[in-house]
Amino acid sequence: MKAFASWSGGKESVMAFYYARVSKNLKVQFLLNMLTEDGMRSRSHGISAELLRIQAEAIGVPLIQRKTSWKTYEEEFKTAVFEIKPKGIKVGVFGDIDLPEHRDWVERICKEVDIKPILPLWKKGREELLIEFIQLGFQAIVVATEAERLGEEWLGRIIDHNFVKDLKARKDIDLCGERGEYHTFVYGGPIFQKPVKFIFSKKIRKEKHWFLELKPFL
């Protein structure tokens, strides 16, 4: 069955893609990524649109990107899904773990566009997910943090066993960052045909968040 994957470029969307392909036997035909109004960065993680396109090329799946504000997010998302449905798309893959308001949104939107929602990570343990992500050979780094909880020193950290150990020592932090504590960019692993090459640019503080700007290494 053909599917699209809601795409941030981070670890949850990557793991959802992986599970959809391996466990659900779905053919993910498109990655759907929502951008800021100027089209420069991903709406959720602040990753450059160009780097996300390179990531999708490394995976080998077409990336659809739509500019949107938070106000128009839902409308733009549904419009994009309607545009790919004629390609035989029947399923949407989402990387949510256990936030009920997120699942409610996913199920409502999918019902409105007549798409079956699949949430492969739903109710999986946080530590279990992170350890499996690492053991499968995925490679990712932290690209954004909520400044009040995780400082700029966490930017650029590799998602490895030491990272998990350090996060576990912080009782106020969700291990997978489900409350927005941190976001990641995945640059290699089982679903990639080749790794994504990039360089660190600079750290930027925007209101309550820190961002690590990455640039493609061409």
Question: What does this protein structure show overall?
Answer:
By secondary structure, the chain is an alpha/beta fold. It folds into two domains: 2-118, 3-Layer(aba) Sandwich (Rossmann fold), CATH 3.40.50.620; 133-216, putative n-type atp pyrophosphatase, domain 2 (Alpha-Beta Complex). The chain is built from six helices and nine strands; from the N terminus they run E-H-E-H-E-H-E-H-E-H-E-H-E-E-E. The strands form two sheets. A five-stranded parallel sheet has the order 3-2-1-4-5, with helices on both faces. Helix 1 links the parallel strand 1 (2-6) and strand 2. The longest helix has 13 residues, at 100-112. The protein starts with a strand and ends with a strand. The model has no long low-confidence stretch (mean pLDDT 96).
Précis, in short:
The chain is of the alpha/beta class. Helix content is 30%, strand content 26%.
Features:
218 residues; alpha/beta; Rossmann fold; putative n-type atp pyrophosphatase, domain 2; 2 domains; four-stranded antiparallel β-sheet; 26% strand; globular
Helices and strands in order:
Blueprint: E1 2-6, H1 11-22, E2 27-35, H2 49-59, E3 63-67, H3 73-84, E4 91-93, H4 100-112, E5 116-118, H5 126-135, E6 139-146, H6 161-168, E7 182-188, E8 198-206, E9 209-216
Parallel strand pairs: 1-2, 1-4, 2-3, 4-5
Antiparallel strand pairs: 6-7, 6-9, 8-9
**Helix proportion:** 25-40%
- What is the element string, with H for helices and E for strands? EHEHEHEHEHEHEEE
Total individual domains: 2
Spans of at least 5 consecutive residues with low confidence: none
